[in-house]
Amino acid sequence: MWAPLRVRLAFTSHRLVRDRTVLRSYGHTSTESLTPNVARLPSTVDVGTRFEEDTLRCLSRYGIDLRRVGGADDKGVDLRGRWRLPKEGGVDPALSSPGHHGGFLEFPIIVQCKKERTKLGPKYFRELEGTLARESPNTIALLASSEGFSTKAVDLLFASRVPLALAVINSDRICVRLALNRALQELVPGLMVYKNQSNELTVWYRNKSLTSI
């Protein structure tokens, strides 16, 4: 049998008062405060930005001076700057057309950074070639990956007729691979990448080390 309306309302009011009292006894003033605090996970943008910063720092060890330019109007470029080489290296200015600053030759360079879960395929280099076509002559383009590159992607890099490079930046923020294609080595003769006895990457130009210690 249903209780009279007045009795039901009284019972409901009593229950609400009792529930509020219980909440206060636990130091709560609303049910919202009962929701556990969940640590905020980094967003895709946060992860991408961090990888761009890691890439910038890693490449700076090899004479590459970069700044972040990623945004709505980045035109497919995340980092932009200059690759600084000792002027006495012997590059013909008429051929390379770089800037001259403080005893260095400076080649324009653009970088795309890809923080993916798998190795990058050849489509990323095709996109980079398209981006490079909109840049000034003799600009170098580099593709940085956190997980490496597929065999087909590497084949496309070395077959390309425009100056391209790839870099692999691991989770320890270390550049574990840096490769230059033939077009880049023809643009900058004498630019080479080696690994030392400690298995660390070193970059040399005309027998001069570009790797900072």
From TrEMBL:
<keyword id="KW-0496">Mitochondrion</keyword>
<dbReference type="InterPro" id="IPR018828">
    <property type="entry name" value="RRG7"/>
</dbReference>
<dbReference type="GO" id="GO:0005739">
    <property type="term" value="C:mitochondrion"/>
</dbReference>
<protein>
    <recommendedName>
        <fullName>Restriction endonuclease type IV Mrr domain-containing protein</fullName>
    </recommendedName>
</protein>
<dbReference type="Pfam" id="PF10356">
    <property type="entry name" value="RRG7"/>
</dbReference>
<dbReference type="InterPro" id="IPR011856">
    <property type="entry name" value="tRNA_endonuc-like_dom_sf"/>
</dbReference>
<dbReference type="GO" id="GO:0003676">
    <property type="term" value="F:nucleic acid binding"/>
</dbReference>
